[in-house]
Amino acid sequence: MLVGMNILGRFAPSPTGVLHLGNLRTALASWLSARAAGGRWIVRMEDVDGPRCRRDLGEAQLRDLATLGLESDGPVLWQSDRGEAYRAALAALHQTDRLYPCLCTRKDLQSLASAPHVEDGLRPYPGRCRDRVWEGYDRALRFRLPAGTATWSDRLLGPQVDDPAALTGDPLLFRRDACFAYHLAVVVDDAAQGVTEVVRGADLRPVTATQIRLQEALVLPRPAYAHLGMVVAPDGSRLGKRAGALGLEALAARCISAAEALGWLGWSLGCLNHPEPCTAEALINRFDWAGVPKAEVRVPEAWT
Ligand code: GLU
What number of CA atoms fall less than 13 Å from residue 113's CA on the CB side? Predict the structure, then answer.
């Protein structure tokens, strides 16, 4: 059982836009979970996704987090600086014959029939290139998933059993344009940074089994996981395009303060009986995973 300073939580946004209430709720929950246990918390910028990621957007996200009182204990890691570590992980996987070149084009992938039970628009890769022989590192590379289900205990959702082959299929780890993919970077960095708990949105629950398989193949420790219900628009639709309007700056322009936003977020995480302005600090000793609702939460109508 980990205690106190051995606990390390993290928030790992992609700097592709403004942090909206959904992102901020994840940030706050991960911070509260670590702080309530006497642990530390870090921010990591997941900027491996090519030109969509921008340094200035990341800096703005860090400012928004600081406005809420959420500041990284230690330097913020930018994944675009981590190529060497990802390359070493690919080499380790290649050594144990876990990688294969994938020549499928985007068009090929779109035309592949999707599995009958596809969650959240995930299309598992059906393994068309699985038997291809190694051709070097200048190809897109996929991880050959071992057969079988993965089990883990989610701190919010309880015991989970998933078959990664049915959810993601063999994940892409390296793209032809020499970008490292999310699954590789997240697994390598959580371990390199000593992260012990991963709190993130339920949209990422279906990829957890795949990441667990990758941790196993790289002989890396497995953090604890908690997947939070999504924050949705008042009509139940995903925040998507409206995201920009639900960032701190846009809310402030409509006279909704950071303290009010925090109060709403804290209430949505079961820390307060009513949404009332507060600080993040004031929520620490009210946070308890047992009190966090599993369901999705709707943004107040008046805020949209
Ligand atoms: N960077 C991912 C995102 O912004 C989150 C990754 C994670 O928490 O594992 O969606």
Answer: 3
Whether the CB-CB separation of 177 and 105 falls below 8 Å is answered with no
Residues 51 and 94 grouped into a single domain = no
- Ligand 1 atom index nearest CA of 200: 8
User: Quick check: is 134 in a domain?
Assistant: yes
118 pLDDT higher than 70 = no
Q: Is 18 exposed, middle or buried (0-12, 13-18, 19+ CB in 10 A)?
A: middle
Mutational test site, ligand 1, from 14, 23, 231, max ligand atoms within 8 Å of CB: 14
User: Of all protein residues, whose CA lies closest to atom 4 belonging to ligand 1?
Assistant: 13
- How many whole angstroms separate alpha carbon 247 and alpha carbon 250? 5
3-state helix, strand, coil in the chain (%, to 5): 40, 15, 40
- Residues 87-111 have pLDDT tens digits of 999 999 999 999 999 999 888 887 7
Q: Is there a domain that residue 113 lies in? A: yes
Q: Compute the distance between CA of residue 156 and CA of residue 292 in angstroms, rounded to an integer.
A: 7
Residue 196 lies in a domain: no
Model confidence over 185-205: pLDDT tens digits? 999 999 999 999 999 999 999
Task: Point out the ligand 1 atom lying closest to the alpha carbon of residue 10.
Answer: 8
The conformation of residue 255, written as its DSSP 8-state character, comes to T
- Residue ranges making up the domain that contains 181: 82-190
- Of residues 155 and 119, the one with the higher pLDDT is 155
Q: Closest Cα to atom 6, ligand 1: which residue?
A: 12
Q: What is the pLDDT of residue 45?
A: 98
Is residue 205 domain-resident? no
Cα atoms in the 13 Å half-sphere on the side-chain side of 209: 21
Helix spans in 223-282 (H): 248-253, 258-268
